[in-house]
Amino acid sequence: MCNLLSAALLCCYVVGTCSATDVKRVELLANSDVKEKIKKENSMELRIYPDPVLLNKCAEVEIGDPTVKEILNEMADKLYKWNGVGLAAPQVGILKKIVVIDVRDEPPTLYKMINPKIVWYSADSLVESKEGCLSLPGLSETVLRYEKVKVEYLDENFNKCELEAEGLLSFCLQHELDHLEGKLYIDHLSQSKRDSFLDKFIKLQASKPEENKHEN
Ligand code: ZN
C-alpha cells in the first residue's frame, strides 16, 4: 500500500485481476518502455504497474529462512523512504509472503510479517476505504474493506503472532495481503471503474519525466 486516506460506508464487488484489455495495455507499455520494465530479480526497486511481478502469487517463506530478516529490514527502510504505510514483497520484486506495515499510530508500531494470513474478518461489516498504492502512484480510489480482521503471522524471529485490527490498520492489512495474492486494490473496483482508473494511470505515467516515474 500505499497511501490510505479515509474511510466511510458503501458496498462492493471483486473483479478479475487481469483482463484482455490489461494484456494489451501491458504490451503497449512494454513496447514503448522496455528498459523501464526490465528489472533485476534481486534489486529492491519499487515495482510499478503493469510490472508482471505484481500480478503473481507469492510463495510461503520457509521457517528459519536466513534471508528474511535482511529483506524485512530493507523493506522497512523503503517503507519510510517512500512514505508508505505498508509495503508487500512483490512491490520490490520478491515473490515471498513478506509484508511491513506502519500506519503511524500513537505509539508508532512497525509490523514485520512473515506468511501473514487473515483468519477472521467482520463479514457483516464492510466500510469504504480511500486507498492509494506505491505501485500505482499518483491516483487513489475508494474500495470496500472489512472493518475488522484478525491476522496470524510469524515475526522476524519466526514466533507465531496474532493481530486483531480495525480501521486504517485493518484496511492496510487487507491491501498488503492482497498484494501477496497478486491482487491490487483496483481489482476491488467494478470493471468500468477499473478500466477508467487504468486509462488515467497510463496517461499520467506517460506524462511524467523519466526520472520521476519511480519514487525511490
Ligand atoms: Zn499497494
Describe the model:
With 216 residues, the protein is of the alpha+beta class. It has one domain: Peptide deformylase (Peptide Deformylase, Alpha-Beta Complex), CATH 3.90.45. 29% of the residues lie in helices and 25% in strands. The protein has 5 helices and 8 strands; from the N terminus they run E-H-H-H-E-E-E-E-E-E-E-H-H. The strands form 2 sheets. It has a 5-stranded antiparallel sheet. It has a 3-stranded antiparallel sheet with strand order 1-5-6. It is globular. The N terminus is likely disordered.
Quick structural gist:
Helix content is 29%, strand content 25%. It has 216 residues and is an alpha+beta fold.
What topology does this entry show?
Elements lengths: L5 E3 L11 H13 L1 H4 L30 H14 L4 E3 L9 E4 L9 E11 L4 E8 L2 E11 L1 E7 L5 E7 H14 L10 H17 L9
Antiparallel strand pairs: 1-5, 2-3, 3-4, 4-7, 5-6, 7-8
The site of zinc ion has 7 residues, from helix 4.
Q: How many distinct helices?
A: 5
The number of strands is 8
The chain-level mean pLDDT equals 84
Ions, cofactors, ligands: which are bound? zinc ion
Strand order of the largest sheet: 2-3-4-7-8
Instruction: Please state the overall shape, judged from the principal axes of the Cα atoms.
Output: globular
Radius of gyration from the alpha-carbon trace, in angstroms: 17 Å
Number of domains: 1
Low-confidence stretches: 3-19, 23-42
Helix content bin: 25-40%
Beta-strand percent range: 25-35%
Q: List the helices and strands in order.
A: EHHHEEEEEEEHH
User: Major beta sheet, specifics?
Assistant: 5 strands, antiparallel
The CATH class label is: Alpha Beta
